[in-house]
Write a structure and sequence with these properties.
By secondary structure, the protein is mainly β. It has one domain: Cathepsin D, subunit A, domain 1 (Beta Barrel), CATH 2.40.70.10. It has 1 helix and 11 strands. The strands form 2 sheets. A 9-stranded mixed sheet has the order 2-3-10-4-9-8-7-6-5. Strands 1-11 form a two-stranded parallel ribbon. The N and C termini lie far apart (about 85 Å). InterPro entries: Asp_endopeptidase, Peptidase_aspartic_dom_sf. This is Retropepsin-like aspartic endopeptidase domain-containing protein. Pfam families: Zn_protease.
């Protein structure tokens, strides 16, 4: 009987918090606060005014994003090739048919391509949801901490006049 092969050395994955700032370099360089959700299979980006069109005979989509939470004044118009359309079931059980794009994301010193479904997330707390498919084999998530892979953005509060 041959000896048991030695197990592969454990690979330490870098940690992420339950929320992180993510850069979308091909989508206007937007910096978006995302909820890292291992309970969600796919990733989703808040998009509105979604308009499909053909570019060189291939399906594309033009859309607007609001990169900042609770701020609808600033928007960025972007375009991306459509990978496919997919039925996605929300946590509330509602199914919708969404366009799926592939775009690079930057987080924790890494850059990789992620599939994103485009949906209205106006009523959600985060403009982006980073699901387990996007982070599998790259990171572990510490659900009790925030911004382990990115720095929190601190905004200056406006001074109140007396």
């Amino acid at each position: 009987m041959p000896p048991n092969p030695r197990p592969a050395p454990e690979r330490r994955l870098p940690p992420l918090g339950w929320r992180e700032w993510i850069v979308l370099p091909k989508l206007g360089g937007a910096l978006v606060k995302a909820k890292v959700d291992t309970g969600a299979r796919s990733s989703s980006l808040h998009a509105f005014e979604v308009e499909p069109f053909l570019k060189g005979g291939a399906p594309w989509v033009r859309f607007q994003i609001h990169p900042l939470q609770r701020n609808s004044r600033r928007s960025i118009e972007v375009q991306a090739a459509v990978l496919e359309h997919r039925h996605v079931k929300s946590s509330g059980g509602h199914t919708s048919y969404r366009p799926v794009i592939v775009t690079p994301v930057e987080l924790a010193g890494q850059r990789w391509d992620v599939e994103l479904t485009l949906a209205s997330r106006d009523t959600m707390g985060f403009r982006m949801l980073l699901g387990r498919q996007a982070i599998r084999t790259r990171f572990v998530v510490d659900p009790g901490r925030s911004y382990l892979g990115s720095l929190p953005i601190v905004r200056k509060k406006k001074k109140q006049l007396p």
